[in-house]
Each structure stands twice: as structure tokens, then as C-alpha cells.
TrEMBL record:
<dbReference type="InterPro" id="IPR009057">
    <property type="entry name" value="Homeodomain-like_sf"/>
</dbReference>
<protein>
    <submittedName>
        <fullName>Transcriptional regulator, TetR family protein</fullName>
    </submittedName>
</protein>
<dbReference type="Pfam" id="PF00440">
    <property type="entry name" value="TetR_N"/>
</dbReference>
<feature type="DNA-binding region" description="H-T-H motif">
    <location>
        <begin position="25"/>
        <end position="44"/>
    </location>
</feature>
<dbReference type="InterPro" id="IPR025722">
    <property type="entry name" value="TetR"/>
</dbReference>
<keyword id="KW-0238">DNA-binding</keyword>
<dbReference type="InterPro" id="IPR050109">
    <property type="entry name" value="HTH-type_TetR-like_transc_reg"/>
</dbReference>
<dbReference type="Pfam" id="PF13972">
    <property type="entry name" value="TetR"/>
</dbReference>
<feature type="domain" description="HTH tetR-type">
    <location>
        <begin position="2"/>
        <end position="62"/>
    </location>
</feature>
<dbReference type="GO" id="GO:0000976">
    <property type="term" value="F:transcription cis-regulatory region binding"/>
</dbReference>
<dbReference type="GO" id="GO:0003700">
    <property type="term" value="F:DNA-binding transcription factor activity"/>
</dbReference>
<dbReference type="InterPro" id="IPR001647">
    <property type="entry name" value="HTH_TetR"/>
</dbReference>
Amino acid sequence: MTGTKTRILDTALDLFNRHGERNVTTNHIAEALGISPGNLYYHFRNKTAIVAALFERYRQQIWEWLPPPKGELTWQDKMHYLQGILESMWQGRFLHRDLPHFLHQDPELRAEYTQFVQDGMERGLQIYQGLRASGLIEASDEDLRALMVNTWVLAMSWPGLTHGLNPAAAENETLDRALLRQGIYQIVCLEAPYLRGEALNHLDAMKAEFRVGDTTVNLLFTASDPHVGEVSNG
């Protein structure tokens, strides 16, 4: 990928995440880069093509952040996976926030996203199976599949929920990331009944790592307070 093409994607991602894709035009992207619209169109024929390229970048990052398990896993490996989910939510937050719009607008992206969900759920199940084989989780096959689906749904929908309740947070990266971080705390709580061994022993540490507010409900509905973003992560 050329340097200009990469810069276009980097700039578009920043603008989309801060302002929302619908509020950003190709002219805005070109202006922010200091290039002509014609130069931008040389690399991307329209904004839909930019979104598709950003989704492909996001998909590749997901696989890097959530590698398939190799050998016995530790609770630190579990923390690594949780951090990977947080990074995916953060880097691709504009996609999560307006996903139905993108999928309805672009049939090709919808097909790619459908495959991504299938692959992602398969990867998620592999990870949970690895955690179970390592004695960090105890669950039946049915419960393990349900846990994987619920974790996926929570991770994919959380950015949209927080943005819908607190759209102004997109302009405050500290607050915006804090809201997403609380979503990982919710995943830890979702997994808590199934944790065993050292994962259970470190449950309080995992909660403290991602907890931002006293309660998730309070955080969601009081995040317009500028001091919320200053809350310690433990």
C-alpha cells in the first residue's frame, strides 16, 4: 500500500471515529491531509471504498489481537485477549457505532462482514476451548458456545450503546475510551461464573483493570460529566 493511500486511511479513520462517518466527506479527508480531492479519488473512488478498506484493516488487526491459542494458557493470556477486544472496539468504533447503515449501504461489505462474524465466532470458540483445556474455565460445550456468542454480541454492540447515550464523548478520547473499557469489565462479569483456577484467583484484579465507574449503569448515564473520564482504572 502506498504512503498516500495509508495516510488517507489513517486520516479517514481518525475523522470517522471522532465525528462519525456520515458527518465526514471525502473533501474533509482531503482537506485534513492537505491533498486535492482528485488525488484522493486516484486511490479511492468514493467514501464507500474507504470504509471497505478500513474494515479490511480492522479485520486483520482482530486476528492479530486475538490469535488462536497455542499450548497451555495462563490468566495473563486471558488478560491479553481482553486487551485485544478493547483495542478492536477502540480502533473500529466508528464501524460498531453505525454498522447497520454500512451493511445496508454496501452489499459487498455485508458479505465480507458475514464471513467475518463466522470466522470471529470460530476464533472465539477456539480461545474459550483453550481456556477450558487450561483449567481457567469450566463449562459444558453448550454453555461455552453461548458464552462465546454473548461475548461477541457484547463486544460488537457496546460501542453503539455508549455512543447512542453519549454522542459527545466521541470528541473526548479519554472519556470515550473509558466508556469502552467498562464494556470489557462487563465481559469479565459475564465470564465470572465460569472462571476456575488462577483466572478465578485473579478475578478481582481483572475487574479492577477494566472497571471505570462505580457501576456500569451510573457510568452510562452520567458520562456527560467531564470528570468521568478522569476516573482511575483501578
